[in-house]
Design goal:
The chain is of the alpha/beta class. It is built from eight helices and 19 strands. It is globular. The N and C termini lie close together (11 Å). The structure holds nicotinamide-adenine-dinucleotide. The site of nicotinamide-adenine-dinucleotide has 25 residues, from α1. This is Glyceraldehyde-3-phosphate dehydrogenase. Belongs to the glyceraldehyde-3-phosphate dehydrogenase family. Keywords: NAD, Nucleotide-binding, Oxidoreductase.
Length: 327
């Protein structure tokens, strides 16, 4: 039986998930029961059809009378600020993509509405656990509210898990070279964090990353070994992990890493001299870039690309299916 899913918050991640479920992952056995957003249906339908990053939707989109129709498949579309006011009986899982579910009351709204479980598309202290595929998915049980972590945590944690197992990770530092997101303004505007108050497309913006805290949460045995920062750059799509590490065993790192990545469900590898736009719409959590890896006398520099929207949305679907399999 198909997994019945509701999407709450039809922004970059909510729309990417629906686009995936209507295209590359159409046959995954997920039925969209409904979508909810505080923005009007017409605006949401327009942004779903015309996407500045992924291009026009390759199919027919129609909207009207509370329904978003994707290639003739009608999806009820609600316009409700408080999800708990909807009737979600029969919905197995809410994909909570509003960015507001750090608040326990918001995170629980889907359950209050009658849905079976909630998967949050970002860090959340309200979640019973944070699960990152390829890093700590062994802890997946019958939790009712889960967080899928962040895009950067999904990129970094599986890599740390892997290199610690292969070489022994003594310590390191990661900078995510991150495209701008909707959390940054297009022109200077007041924000609590001064760095994030500056025009997103005009400067490289050094700022913080939640990936350090979340990676420690997801990989408690490695907690405290890798610090994290972010450099937000004037690019609209695709980010990179730039990781400098001290490894115990330094023998034949590239070849062993490349062989191990070949068996990973979430990590990839490239030997090509790529730039960020080449990685748009890649489904992996992280694609290691062989040509960018360097080894100094004491430290190694690993580098990988990730499409923070598309890769992460694929992980949301993967995790939803894993949660659904426990129904
Ligand atoms: N953009 C990324 O690359 C990315 C990657 C991984 C995780 N995330 C996380 O996913 C979450 C969403 O990010 P995004 O980039 O999609 O943001 P976004 O701003 O593009 O989308 C959020 C959507 O939620 C809607 N919304 C806000 N309040 C609502 C409410 N009360 N009820 C219903 N809808 C509501 C907004 O109208 C908007 O359409 C954030 O927690 C973010 O950290 C984002």
């Amino acid at each position: 039986m198909a997994l019945r899913v509701a999407i709450n918050g039809f922004g970059r991640i909510g729309r990417s998930i629906l686009r995936l479920l209507a295209t590359a992952r159409r046959d995954d056995g997920i039925e969209i029961a409904c979508i909810n957003d505080i923005a009007p249906l017409d605006s949401c339908a327009y942004l779903f059809e015309y996407d500045s990053v992924f291009g026009p939707f390759p199919g027919r989109i129609e909207a009207g009378d509370g329904v978003l129709s994707v290639e003739g498949r009608a999806i009820p579309f609600h316009h409700e600020a408080d999800l708990s006011r909807l009737d979600l009986a029969g919905v197995d899982l809410v994909l909570e993509c509003t960015g507001r579910a750090n608040d326990p009351a918001v995170a629980a709204r889907g359950l209050k509405a009658g849905a079976g479980r909630v998967l949050i598309s970002g860090p959340s202290e309200a979640a019973e656990a944070t699960v990152v595929l390829g890093a700590n998915d062994g802890i997946l049980a019958d939790q009712r509210i889960l967080s899928c972590g962040s895009c950067t945590t999904n990129a970094l944690a599986p890599l740390l898990r892997l290199i610690d197992g292969l070489f022994g990770l003594e310590g390191g530092h990661m900078t995510t070279v991150h495209c701008y997101t909707g959390a940054q303004p297009t022109v200077d505007a007041p924000r609590a964090d001064p760095a994030r108050s500056r025009a997103a497309a005009l400067s490289m913006v050094p700022t913080s990353s939640s990936a350090g805290r979340l990676t420690d949460l997801v990989l408690p045995d490695l907690a405290g070994r890798v610090s994290c920062t972010a450099l937000r750059v004037p690019v609209a799509s695709v980010s990179a992990v730039d990781l400098t590490v001290r490894l115990r065993d330094r023998g034949d790192i590239d070849a062993r890493l490349r062989a191990a990545v070949a068996g990973s469900p979430v990590l990839g590898w490239t030997d090509r001299p790529l730039v960020s736009s080449d990685l748009r719409a890649r489904p992996e959590s992280l694609i290691l870039a062989g040509p960018e890896i360097r080894h100094g006398p004491e430290l190694s520099r690993l580098f990988g690309w990730y499409d923070n929207e598309w890769g992460f949305s694929n992980r949301m679907i993967d995790l939803a299916l894993r949660m659904g399999a426990r129904r």
